[in-house]
């Protein structure tokens, strides 16, 4: 049975009415037949108190009579079909022909469950005698908690021995459980040819990654994180430092602007009335640089002031003849001129 068929079987088993708490699974055994002699009786479940599957799971079979009772209670022959078509194709309305019909269920001396093949169909007889099929695969019903085998749902001819195909309990199936195996592999990022074991390993890895992420959230790496209070303090310091640098830069610019404008005033290259205009111009982007370039070629338009170099009158000196004559004309004495200014 290939993987695609296995995935379909997982879905098909859900349609079977299964008692709550139980599930079904397909077990495969070699078909005891020779090309020239069809068997009249076949073994469905081997004897022994425990049956171990290829995947390591084990089923209890210490009450084999319980299986016989289950089969007898159905009051019908058990179908032997091709590749579990009764479980896979029939529920979908597709043909599911029988290869043979089984009845007369009994236990042999080893406790194995056996059945008589009361009739072969032409297709079934040809498939076995021509060795088109060499194995049988009973679909067993078992208790999910105790793993106790309770019955057999059907039997199929197959060519994949010892292949264990789990099926889901119809009573507890969900949308996720009915997902096709191909879709599950795709979501896991696995190729379509991946096995169920590889899918389970991928899921286990995802669970491990999730646990690792949750652990990191609970105990974060202190080298990559800082307490909020420390972060806020550092941010405040950085903001204050940035503001201070901005303020210092503005003050430095203002000092440079005033120095350049005052120098231009003293040189007579700009008029005092236009000082505010040039100061504002220097505050624009690249304004100070452009102003310096302007001063290099600007002519002198105002006579330089000599106020800085003019000598202040000495109040301690005597009035000269001209000053005395003017003072006499206005009736001012030398003391008045000293007090109120010449």
Notes on the protein architecture:
- The protein is an alpha+beta fold.
- The protein folds into 2 domains: 3-195, no CATH class; 228-310, no CATH class.
- 41% of the residues lie in helices and 18% in strands.
- It has helices at 3-13, 64-73, 85-88, 122-129, 181-187, 196-218, 228-267, 275-282, 287-297, 321-330, 334-340; strands at residues 22-26, 29-30, 41-45, 50-52, 58-60, 78-82, 98-107, 113-120, 135-143, 149-158, 165-166.
- The strands form 2 sheets. Strands 1, 2, 3, 6, 7, 8, 9, 10 and 11 form a 9-stranded mixed β-sheet that branches. Strands 4-5 form a two-stranded antiparallel sheet.
- α7 (228-267) packs parallel to α9.
- The chain is rod-shaped and about 165 Å long.
- The protein starts with a helix and ends with a helix.
Tally of structural domains: 2
State mean pLDDT (0 to 100 scale). Answer: 75
Tally of helical segments: 11
Shape: rod-shaped
**What is the percent of helical residues?**
40-55%
Low-confidence stretches: 1-16, 161-178
Distance between the termini: 129 Å
Q: What pattern of helices and strands is seen along the backbone? A: HEEEEEHEHEEHEEEHHHHHHH
Name the beta content range. 15-25%
Number of separate strands: 11
CA radius of gyration: 53 Å
- Assembly classification: single chain
Instruction: Tell me about the largest β-sheet.
Output: 9 strands, mixed
- Coarse structural class: alpha+beta
